[in-house]
TrEMBL record:
<comment type="similarity">
    <text>Belongs to the anhydro-N-acetylmuramic acid kinase family.</text>
</comment>
<dbReference type="GO" id="GO:0016773">
    <property type="term" value="F:phosphotransferase activity, alcohol group as acceptor"/>
</dbReference>
<dbReference type="Pfam" id="PF03702">
    <property type="entry name" value="AnmK"/>
</dbReference>
<dbReference type="GO" id="GO:0006040">
    <property type="term" value="P:amino sugar metabolic process"/>
</dbReference>
<keyword id="KW-0418">Kinase</keyword>
<comment type="function">
    <text>Catalyzes the specific phosphorylation of 1,6-anhydro-N-acetylmuramic acid (anhMurNAc) with the simultaneous cleavage of the 1,6-anhydro ring, generating MurNAc-6-P. Is required for the utilization of anhMurNAc either imported from the medium or derived from its own cell wall murein, and thus plays a role in cell wall recycling.</text>
</comment>
<dbReference type="InterPro" id="IPR043129">
    <property type="entry name" value="ATPase_NBD"/>
</dbReference>
<dbReference type="GO" id="GO:0016301">
    <property type="term" value="F:kinase activity"/>
</dbReference>
<keyword id="KW-0547">Nucleotide-binding</keyword>
<keyword id="KW-0808">Transferase</keyword>
<feature type="binding site">
    <location>
        <begin position="10"/>
        <end position="17"/>
    </location>
    <ligand>
        <name>ATP</name>
    </ligand>
</feature>
<dbReference type="GO" id="GO:0097175">
    <property type="term" value="P:1,6-anhydro-N-acetyl-beta-muramic acid catabolic process"/>
</dbReference>
<comment type="pathway">
    <text>Cell wall biogenesis; peptidoglycan recycling.</text>
</comment>
<keyword id="KW-0067">ATP-binding</keyword>
<dbReference type="GO" id="GO:0005524">
    <property type="term" value="F:ATP binding"/>
</dbReference>
<dbReference type="InterPro" id="IPR005338">
    <property type="entry name" value="Anhydro_N_Ac-Mur_kinase"/>
</dbReference>
<dbReference type="GO" id="GO:0009254">
    <property type="term" value="P:peptidoglycan turnover"/>
</dbReference>
Length: 369
């Protein structure tokens, strides 16, 4: 077993999650400590300013520097880990065009932390024709197996719905022995999740998010905005498929004329309707949807999902897991898979032709005695 630290800074741009697990890259032996470090206003402003940019473009080096500094800070709080899985900050994602761009530098992080760093998890999948995202699905398989083993889930297909800046869903059959085998997983990004809500709150009310979904709870969904949103061709595309953070900019533009509460309510309804629109791509209807990511703290989102999905909608804590740290844990687990040469994605998670290992391994500089 290897003690690994995973660090994830997601598309909601709120900060960096760090979590430790012990694993052989297949089984989860134990979950360890975790921490969150939020971005300062200045860091968040620089990262927001660099969204949509590619390596070499203005602001990208500064964003990468912020990413390395924040991650090095956090890693210092986990002195016992043997390897670090470092996702980096996604600034742009265009898998069938310019590629995928996670700002950061694993070489610099390895030097700063003195630990081997596994990073650049998505590029190889994209290079081989895949979406490069989502990558947490194989870990969802490991979590489902862990929860079944602990008697917290029945050995039946279940879905994990992650609500970060963007939403992504994984259908998992925990009776499969490997995540890459046919029929084990099916995954895709569902649509926008917290990113447009956060953007609305920041722009109109100078708040980072709609705490508890209280603003949305006071509003009414604008049906014509919702119907226009659902006419987007993305929903007709079969899975696997992935999204860039701001691929649905027209949704944010469409709520501009609405009151604060109606705009928030409409964005929540759009999130839930997007998940419901993706339901048809699942191999079978799961009886339970386990929700992870910050969106599960938004009660308006949870009740909209409960109303729209033909399944029990529960926070992932119902299966003994930590919904705030699942993605960071995923990159710890994936780092160990990369070290062992095991695949991190496959045809049913990113649409790539065959299983892909991906990731780069950077070692700290050795000083000469
Ligand atoms: N108490 C809360 N009430 C409402 N929303 C919340 C609450 N806590 C967190 N959130 C939402 O969840 C977001 C953070 O979610 P999370 O940490 O899962 O995102 P991420 O890791 O950036 O995303 P991604 O999955 O896209 O990589 C916040 O920006 C906010 O929008
Ligand atoms: C390109 C990119 O960073 N995508 C993120 C984003 O945030 C959620 C969703 O879109 C998912 O596809 C992915 O993150 C998670 C960790 C994943 O790869 O599974």
């Amino acid at each position: 077993m290897i003690r690994a630290l995973g660090m994830m800074s997601g598309t909601s741009l709120d900060g960096v999650d760090a979590a430790e697990i012990e694993t052989d890259g297949i089984t989860i032996a134990s979950f360890g400590d975790s921490r969150f470090r939020s971005y300062s206003d200045n860091e968040a402003a620089v990262l927001h300013g660099a969204l949509g940019r590619w390596p070499g473009e203005a602001g990208v080096d500064e964003a990468a520097g912020i990413s390395v500094a924040c991650h090095a800070d956090l890693a210092g709080e986990f002195p016992d880990v043997e390897v670090i899985g470092y996702h980096g900050q996604t600034l742009a994602h265009d898998p069938h065009g310019r590629g995928t761009h996670q700002a950061g530098d694993g070489v610099a992080l390895a030097h700063k932390t003195g630990r081997p760093v596994v990073w650049d998890f998505r590029s190889e999948d994209v290079r081989q024709g895949g979406e490069g995202a989502p990558l947490a699905p194989f870990f969802h398989w490991a979590c489902a197996r862990w929860a079944v083993g602990a008697g917290l889930l029945p050995a039946a297909p279940v879905a994990f719905l992650n609500l970060g800046g963007v939403g992504n869903i994984t259908w998992v059959d925990p009776s499969c022995d490997t995540p890459e085998e046919n029929g084990a997983c099916l995954a895709f990004d569902t649509g926008p999740a917290n990113a447009p809500i956060n953007d609305l709150m920041r722009k109109r009310l100078r708040q980072s998010h709609d705490s508890g979904g209280r603003l949305a709870a006071r509003g009414r969904t604008n049906q014509s905005v919702l119907q226009r949103f659902l006419a987007h061709p993305y929903f007709e595309r079969p899975a696997p498929k992935s999204l860039d953070r701001d691929q649905f900019v027209e949704l944010s533009a469409a709520v501009e004329a609405l009151s604060d509460a109606d705009a928030a309510a409409t964005l929540v309804a759009a999130l839930a309707a997007a998940v419901a629109a993706g339901w048809r791509w699942l191999p079978s209807a799961p009886s339970t949807v386990l929700v992870c990511g910050g969106g599960r703290h938004n009660e308006s989102i949870m009740s909209a999902l409960g109303a729209q999905l033909p399944a029990n909608v529960r926070p992932v804590e119902a299966a003994g897991l930590d919904g705030d740290m699942l993605e960071a844990q995923a990159f710890a687990w994936l780092a160990v898979r990369v070290l062992k040469g095991l695949p991190c994605s496959g045809p049913m998670t990113t649409g790539v032709a065959g299983p892909v290992c991906g990731g780069r391994i950077s070692h700290p500089k050795r000083s000469c005695a």
